[in-house]
Amino acid sequence: MHAQLFPEGVGREGCAGPDVRKCLAEHDDFSEKWIAARPHVVAYARFTMCNAADAEDLGQAVAIRAWRGYATFRGESAFLTWVMAIASREAARLAAHRLRRAEREVPLEVQGEPVTAACLPHADPPSTDWLPALAEQACERGDLNLTEYAVVRARLALPGRTWDEIGTTLDLPGSRCAVAHCRAVAKLRVALFLHHPELLGGESALRHAMAQAARVPHDPLTEAEADVFRRAVLDRRSDHRRRNWPTLLRSACTKVVGHLDMP
Fold this sequence. Notes:
With 263 residues, the protein is mostly helical. It is 64% helix and 0% strand. The chain is built from 11 helices and no strands. The chain is elongated, with a radius of gyration of 23 Å. It starts with 19 loop residues before the first helix and ends in a 6-residue tail after the last helix. Mean pLDDT is 75; it is low at 1-14 and 105-127.
């Protein structure tokens, strides 16, 4: 009766052996909970993924993972919270898979060009067309955690919604979404400087903006921030020896970006 609720490979046919009654009871219990949770998973998949096919793939992956792991669910959190955590992990996994596939599928006419040329269009900086790809790459590298990635994707899909409304979609408190987004923006800004300086005008524009940031009277670029920014962004070096260099780099990027001459 409940098999139609699940994608292929998830149903009563998995119940066999001496524990069949227990398995069927768990199946019915899961079915009841999944019916209530499924609309949230579908909404999250539609908001998070780039197209309907990817959203469907995510929904099926979540259903399968949840059913297979239901025996380990102890009720320490709400079922919906547990399922949405699975959805967040699966979304990041599928995004990473798509990114790896895109990196392998370089068109013949652009062989030899950096993979980033295909992943991130060379749009003007104010455009947000490259933001989803940038977020996916940052999540793949581990720069963004899964919550930050999910919040960024939801924010891009729902630009006019409040944090409480976005939080409802992700089953997170609105305040937590706001904090996660603030942290993600700082991390994505650094990722943009480190991995795609061409979108910000190139090395010459970055050096000019850094010099301006060091000369402003209020909260100028400090010597330590300038040193880390020069090593990491301009010289593309990875031998960061200063203490707390990630914090210094985030602060430097925040100050420098305000002096970029972007249309």
